[in-house]
Specification:
The complex is a heterodimer of chains A (366) and B (390). In chain A, 18% of the residues lie in helices and 42% in strands. The N and C termini of chain A lie far apart (68 Å). Chain A has three domains: 114 residues, DNA Polymerase III, Chain A, domain 2, CATH 3.10.150.10; 119 residues, DNA Polymerase III, subunit A, domain 2 (DNA Polymerase III, Chain A, domain 2), CATH 3.10.150; 111 residues, DNA Polymerase III, subunit A, domain 2 (DNA Polymerase III, Chain A, domain 2, Roll), CATH 3.10.150.10. Chain A is built from six helices and 26 strands. In chain A, strand 24 and strand 25 form a beta hairpin. Helix content of chain B is 42%, strand content 22%. Chain B has three domains: 165 residues, Alpha-Beta Plaits; 57 residues, DNA polymerase, domain 1 (Orthogonal Bundle), CATH 1.10.150.20; 138 residues, Dna Ligase, domain 1. With 390 residues, chain B is an alpha+beta fold. In chain B, strands 5-6-1-7-8 form a five-stranded mixed beta sheet. Classes of the chains: A alpha+beta (366), B alpha+beta (390). At the A-B interface, loops of A face loops of B.
Chain lengths: 366, 390
């Protein structure tokens, strides 16, 4: 294999594909990226056996078709430190590759490309299409709420539900739940429902961020495939039961407060200054035309701040982990939110516009 | 600076309340407790009945044989609870360092509040007066440099007693007393000591700690320290406690696993109630086991999440008991359970999807707690706690 590739294009590809590569693995080949030069395109591939990516670099000149398998962090480092070069020449020499710039030459020991596991390609028709901007925004509104810790529910990923021209993403960690709605340019070919692992979700978000385009999505029995003009992302799905989230979204609320998003966020950050591990809760007292936020950390101190609101319904006291509130307000995307409650020990709900619903459980006031 | 600990013990608490509410019962033999026709036991015997040998925890039928003229009254848990709350309110007016031992008994650490209320004896008198004027009941109070001595002192001049043991007179007070006055020395240990020619605390003190340890294990070391009047356990309110536990020494070593299971379940229910009353949850459940030869061991397990649910505590405790019994079962002299790694329930993040079993357990506990509060501990417990009627 011998290719001359534009350095910037190569670096963009390596950054994305390289993020799949795991740094700790007993199998050295899994620390590599695979390069395939064919049909005037250089394709970079990586997989951690769960998720995989293919990325096409077209700003190349293929001198000789072929394949190579090289440690991702080495190649990444070389390309990153060669940003002053317009292009780099990559050439295989048995299982090693040579990378040449105008005044530099690197030889990196690699592996036999045939040892690398297959990375699925996306050649079929899509189940549905979605605009990258829409999907990126929806991922931003949900991904943070996925469970980091083990749970008996399948909540380490984001639930996708597509039907007609509607797409809905739902994520929860068992304490709060985020739901984002978006519309599709064309009705989905069929209804789909799948739990996509958090790792692939953040990868999709990165791809979405780089260009405005329409993405193809296909959901198969065990895997999800996403195609952009340059990349194919693939991952096995999270198996298991996603909790019946519809049951925990309050159907109605007898107390509703309209609050300025930015001001509320600022006040919560202030109140959170006087919380600690043992007393993570910030108490919110909704009464009249304001909410009073108070916190207390044993042996540290106390905070009390207020924020104007428009309240419908009786006064209520309720306490939350401030991080859970901030997470939602940061992504709400509207100037004002509706904060809806029933009682101090019942789930509360934040609504921002028509496309974002966030349900969160309070902390026990004791 | 020596510590100053008070032990407050209400006099014949349940009986005193009955006399308070029914003045016509004053001067009569009263037995408060379960139905004599069943397997009821005496919760409290009035002083008049104690003259005939009636004691608490005695089967009601036995007590009635000793004192046939006694009036038997069913316990009125809710009323006792009400007065207990008033008493504890008085106690916390003196110091937040109040460690409840039961419904009518507590330790107070008043070391730091002498500037406010005066010398310890004055504090004790104020406290007794306030209890009497608020409730009409009398308390016996012991004042001493530590918990062991304070408890011993409160018992020296009952009823309506006030005994102060000054640091310099500790040995003089202790020495002539029988060894049975030492915390942890019951009939069995006293019998063992008697065989060694030891009857008084003075004699116990003169034994070498090594001999005591040989005979009683680590408890022996503890006995030796207590015999010298040494005890550095802190007064810890339940809300600040590092652990909450319950244990029982059996009159005779118990070799029946079912019986042990029953006792343990009762203890778990009590510990669960205390956790919930104190607004606490715990992660670590520890079993304490003592054999007839005083060998003492502990076995513990730590849960993923802190809990205050009796069912969850029971599953941990029962698991430990099974593990122990399947490997090294021997008759037990003492069995106890405690829960540690406590966190306040307030501030606990509530779950969005509560496992249904947990929700059910929580409702059950709440209901049982309310019933116990109204009708007393004998009113209701898990069926497995109850001995089968013959």
């Amino acid at each position: 294999m011998k290719v001359i590739a534009q350095t910037a294009a190569l670096q963009e590809a390596l950054t994305l594909v390289g993020s799949i590569v795991v740094s700790r693995t007993p199998k050295p080949v899994l620390q590599c990226v695979k390069l395939v030069a064919a049909d005037n395109v250089l394709t970079l591939m990586a997989t951690d056996l769960e998720a995989g990516a293919r990325y096409q670099v077209t700003a190349v000149q293929i001198e000789q078709e072929g394949e190579a398998l090289v440690p991702a962090d080495r190649l990444n480092g070389i390309v990153r430190e060669s940003s002053d070069e317009e292009s780099l020449t990559i050439q295989t020499e048995k299982d090693s590759i040579m990378v040449r710039g105008s005044g530099s030459r690197f030889k990196v020991f690699g592996y036999d490309p045939s040892e690398y596991p297959a990375v699925a390609d996306f050649a079929q028709d899509a189940d549905f299409q979605v605009a990258s901007a829409t999907l990126s925004e929806m991922i931003g509104k949900t991904l943070f709420a996925t469970a980091k810790a083990h749970s008996h529910y399948a909540i380490s990923g984001v639930l996708w539900e597509a039907s007609g021209k509607k797409l809905q993403l739902v994520a929860t960690d068992g304490h709060r739940l985020a739901m984002a709605k978006g519309s599709l340019p064309k009705a989905a070919g069929r209804d789909v429902r799948a739990i996509v692992p958090a790792k692939l979700m953040s990868l999709i978000q990165r791809v979405c961020g780089s260009a405005e385009e329409t993405l193809d999505v296909k959901i198969e029995e065990n895997q999800v495939l996403v195609r952009t003009s340059r990349a194919v992302l693939v991952s096995s799905l999270v198996q298991g039961n996603f909790p019946k989230y519809g049951d925990v979204i309050p159907k109605e609320a007898n107390r509703k407060a309209a609050i300025d998003t930015g001001r509320f966020e600022h006040r919560i950050r202030q109140a959170a200054l006087l919380t600690n591990e043992e007393s993570r809760g910030v108490r919110l007292s909704f009464q009249g035309d304001q909410v009073t936020l108070s916190s207390r950390a044993p042996e540290a101190g106390e905070a009390e701040v207020t924020c104007p609101i428009t309240l419908e319904g009786e006064p209520v006291d309720i306490a939350f982990n401030p991080v859970f509130l901030l997470d939602a307000l940061r992504v709400a995307g509207t100037d004002q939110i509706s904060f809806e409650m029933n009682a101090g020990n019942k789930p509360a709900m934040i609504r921002a516009g028509n496309d974002f619903v966030y349900v969160l459980m309070p902390v026990d006031l004791g | 600076m020596p510590r100053c600990i008070l032990h407050v013990d209400m006099d014949e608490f349940f009986a005193a309340i009955e006399k308070l509410d029914h003045p016509e019962l004053r001067g009569r033999c009263l037995l408060i407790g379960g139905d004599p026709r069943g397997r009821g036991v005496v919760s409290t015997a009035s002083y008049e009945a104690r003259v005939f040998g009636c004691r608490s925890a005695m089967p009601m039928a036995t007590a009635l044989r000793l004192c046939p003229q006694a009036v038997v009254l069913p316990p009125r848990g809710q009323r006792y609870h009400e007065l207990s709350e008033q008493i504890f309110e008085v106690l916390t007016e003196f110091t937040p360092l109040v460690e409840p031992l039961s419904i009518d008994e507590a330790f107070l650490d008043v070391t730091g509040c002498q500037r406010l209320f005066g010398p310890p004896e004055r504090i004790a008198r104020l406290l007794k007066d306030r209890i009497r004027s608020r409730t009409g009941l009398t308390a016996s109070v012991g004042v001493a440099p530590n918990k062991f001595l304070a408890k011993l002192a409160s018992d020296l001049r009952k009823p309506d007693g006030l005994v102060v043991i000054e640091p310099e007179e500790v040995q003089a007070v202790l020495d002539p007393l029988p060894v049975g006055r030492i915390w942890g020395i019951g009939a069995a240990a006293a019998g063992e000591l008697d065989k060694m020619g030891v009857r008084t605390i003075a004699q116990l003190r003169s034994l070498s700690p090594r001999r005591l340890v040989e005979r009683f294990g680590s408890a022996g070391e503890h006995f030796h320290r207590l015999a010298q009047g040494l005890d550095d356990r802190e007064v810890t309110p339940d809300s600040q406690a590092k652990s909450i536990g319950q244990e029982q020494t059996f009159a005779q070593d118990v070799d029946d696993l079912d019986e042990l299971r029953r006792v343990l379940l009762g203890q778990v229910e009590q510990v669960g109630r205390r956790l919930r009353a104190g607004g606490l949850s715990g992660r670590t459940v520890q079993l304490k086991i003592r054999y007839g030869d005083f060998t003492t061991l502990t076995r513990s397990t730590t849960r993923d999440q802190p809990t205050d649910l009796s069912d969850e505590l029971w599953s941990s405790a029962a698991g430990l008991l099974e593990q122990w019994s399947s490997r090294s079962f021997r008759p037990l002299r003492l069995l106890g359970v405690s829960v540690s790694q406590l966190v306040p329930r307030s501030g606990r993040q509530l779950p969005l999807f509560a496992p249904p079993a947990q929700e059910k357990g929580r409702r059950l506990d709440q209901t049982l707690d309310r019933l116990v509060e109204r009708f007393g501990e004998d009113a209701i417990s898990r069926a497995a706690c109850r001995r089968k009627e013959p």
